[in-house]
Amino acid sequence: MLDEIDKIGPDWRGDPSSALLEVLDPAQNHTFVDNYLGVPFNLSQVLFIATANTLDTIPGPLDGNPHPVRVHGRGEGGHRQGLSGAHGIAATELSFEPEAIRQIVRGYTREAGVRSLDREIAAVARKVARRIAEGQREPIRITADNLVEYLGRPRFFDEVAERTTRPGVATGLAWTPVGGDVLFVEVTMMPSSEERLVLTGMLGDVMRESAQAAVSYVWSNAEALHIDPKFFEHRTIHVHVPAGAIPKDGPSAGVTIMTALASLATRRPVRSDLAMTGEITLRGKVLPVGGIKEKVLAAHRVGIREVILPRRNERDIEDIPEELRKELRFMLVDDAEEVLRHALTPALADVPGAAR
Predict the structure, then answer these.
(1) What is the DSSP string of 330-345?
(2) Would residue 252 show up in a list of annotated catalytic residues for this protein?
(3) Are residues 314 and 184 in the same domain?
(4) Among 262, 187, 179, CA closest to 219
(5) Catalytic residue among 210, 248, 263, 295
(6) How far apart are the C-alpha atoms of 318 and 338, rounded to whole Å?
(7) Are residues 225 and 188 in the same domain?
(8) Do the domain assignments include residue 71?
(9) Does a structural domain hold residue 354?
């Protein structure tokens, strides 16, 4: 077992990827020589299992040798199935209601796996063990109501409804090495002497280009989208993706940026129960993206019930667990106008502070 080979790299002691290449390459590993022992080994019949959080940072020589097997994240049902009753406490002394586990997943961990969930369960178990050591004999049942006594106040909150109450904010979905994530795209405008585009939030080159394409599409199709073409004149467009200390990149945010900009220009807020993913072209075509299962799992964790996906990602819906497919509604789209038709709510009569 080779754990986390995406974190290896050369230093003054040598390059471990060169040695691993000899170990993993079927054409070389039958005569592998260990330099410490000076003895040849035949490794051709050995099965090597390597783990990595992301394939992008695996050294180039190793990238093509191991056959990648992607392990997807879990839904809330999977988190509950992974719960263990260990930590030195008998099952008769400590029990969890299903709603308590759901609250831990949503309010304290929000991850694709179960590592953080296991840590939170262990924290609860330690406090219960202390109470038992102090003389408590009654079984303890953890519920959603008394969970705060053991874990403190929740660290995550349902921000979607709060964020999308005003025009200019859209909920997008992103893929990360540790699972899917929800991101908010905010757009605002300020008067200026010339038209400018400002992008903030530690965006990578790919996401910056997606933002530029989204702005160009909305601006060039203003009349078709029922936007006054003069709306963009002498304005600075500011696109911001919060959590600025976290680098963000990838092609999945084009549709989200376009929707946030159209929302601001038409003064129509984006629906709070909806998230989206997809790349956009200058002609308004919605292109397929990757990581659909992880993104949908992330949307479900924060209470999203409708997801806009590129139509060419329809086959990826089959990879999503059946219990999630029953709880979510998927809207498959081909172009930007379909996205806006699904995503935008009726126009607001007046929103204090919104761009006019």
Answers:
(1) EEEESBHHHHHHHHBP
(2) yes
(3) yes
(4) 262
(5) 295
(6) 23
(7) yes
(8) no
(9) no
Identify the DSSP state of 64: T
Q: State the CATH number of the domain containing residue 36.
A: 3.40.50.300
| CATH assignment of the domain containing 121 | 1.10.8.60
Q: CA torsion sign, 255 to 258 to 263 to 266?
A: negative
Cα–Cα distance for residue pair 315/312, rounded to 1 Å: 7
305 to each of 169, 275, 329, how far by Cα in Å? 18, 8, 6
What residues contact 45, with CB distance under 8 A and at least 6 apart?
A: none
pTM score: 0.72
Q: Is residue 206 part of a domain?
A: yes
pLDDT in tens, the chain (356 residues): 888 888 887 777 777 877 788 788 777 788 888 777 888 888 888 888 888 877 777 776 676 667 777 766 555 555 444 444 556 677 788 888 888 888 888 788 766 667 788 888 888 888 888 888 888 888 888 898 898 888 888 887 666 666 778 899 999 998 876 677 888 899 999 998 887 899 998 888 989 999 999 999 999 999 888 888 788 888 999 999 987 667 778 888 899 999 999 999 999 999 988 999 999 999 999 999 988 988 898 888 788 889 999 999 999 999 888 888 888 999 999 999 999 999 998 865 544 444 44
Q: Assess whether 198 and 339 both reside in one domain.
A: yes
Residue 32 domain boundaries: 5-63
Same domain, 171 and 141: no
Contact present, 160 and 171 (Cβ < 8 Å)? yes
Amino acid at 14: G
Which candidate in 252, 263, 272, 293 is catalytic? 252
Of 37, 63, 89, which one is at a domain's C-terminal end? 63
